[in-house]
What does this fold into?
Amino acid sequence: MKSPVFVCESCQEPYARWQGQCNQCLEWNSIQESITHTKKTPDLSPPPTPITNIAIDMPLLYTQTLPELDHVLGNGLVMGATTLLGGEPGIGKSTLAMQLAKVVTDKNQSVLYISAEESAAQLALRAKRLNCLSEKLTVYTTQSMGNIVEQIHNLKPHVVILDSIQVVKDSDLSGVPGSVSQVHHCANRLVSVTKTIGCHSVIIGHITKEGGLAGPKVLEHLVDIILFFEGDRYQSQRILRCFKNRYGSTEEIGLFAMEKTGLIANRHPEKSFLDRPLKPNQSGSMIVPIQEGSRVFLIEIQALVVSSGYGMAKRTFVGVDQNRINVLIATLEKNLSIKLSNKDIFVTVIGGYKLNQPAADLGILLSILSAFYTLPLSHLLGVVGEVDLTGHIRPVKQLSKYIQELGSLGFQYCITPKQTNTTEHPNLTTLSATTIQDAVQHLLKVSKKNGKVAESG
Ligand SMILES: Nc1ncnc2c1ncn2[C@@H]1O[C@H](COP(=O)(O)OP(=O)(O)OP(=O)(O)O)[C@@H](O)[C@H]1O
Ligand SMILES: [Mg+2]
It folds into this structure.
């Protein structure tokens, strides 16, 4: 293959493109184009093939004993594929990787755990605590990508875990570990060796200050599956989300609890975001059903509204988009002619869940209203509906599913948008609303302090 380069005729300094003066010998007009012959690399790619002649049976490695991980992945682990697992420090990435190793070694298959961050003793201690010790699990502590590739070729494991990509370095490149070029290059080498060996690789990745996956964007393109751990690391609840999956859906989430013995799959995912058994007659607390993939979860939203001291009123929101709530507060003020500008408003989604579904709008709005009037509510009330700027409540998808889930969990009432073709539940009274005012009327009906809003407003 021929490629043009430019060389200074005076001092032989090479250049990628032409320029007037040589930087080295400062000679003018001495740089001339020259052709170099680079070595031709053999083309190992398969010849063009009709799509009907291509074998499509991908070898799968089902995890099975980690049901929530299976639920997120849908198809188990595909051999030859690479998964990127990201999340905040201390959230449980290494723990999940170790538990995955246990599942694989229990099937008498081998795992190579490359620890670039922790010592072998630290890893062994964790493996012991999580009951993951096995002769099939090999630990290799190195930060050299060259050595890692060599050992993968030597050992040919079924699963490779690299903990983490930000700490390994390829000596062919000059950048420090974690730099864009190092992360890109090292990930590329791992993806390539994974395909050659036919194993499954799990790359653990750090996150940025903003909460996204650290490293070049191309890293996300390189891998086949991207899993992300969410949740409040000071609580036990952990949420595993799939952002990309070349072999399955990305809609499902997995719920775990972090215990001393590791991550335990949540047995009642539908109720997992409820902080505690619901208390009757509590104001400012609202239960909202939301859909994640094929499952419906109940989320508890809590609001607190108090008179402001001096200066600007405080607005503090946890787990909900600030702009979205500000729009809802403005809609509430306008439609019910109430004044909230002199009130501090705090809204929290319980359980570390990040709420971004418009179907939760009405729940947020009514929880603020209930807190504002100290309006005690039935603890067996669920609320669902998207609120628009005119104060109308818009239909939501899968309303029947929400109604059935609330009914089967013993809820008595549900305030919903007015929409047709919904299936009722025999034990649940559905209160349909077209506007915020309709929803408030329903709220008063199920409130123990009937008429309080009318008096105060
Ligand atoms: N002895 C223990 N008992 C209970 N929980 C523990 C124990 N040791 C660790 N943990 C839990 O495990 C978490 C750390 O998990 P892990 O090391 O897997 O996180 P990580 O995401 O890999 O973190 P990092 O990014 O720092 O590597 C701790 O935050 C804690 O919740
Ligand atoms: Mg770790």
Remarks:
- The longest helix spans residues 180-197.
- The chain has eleven helices and 23 strands.
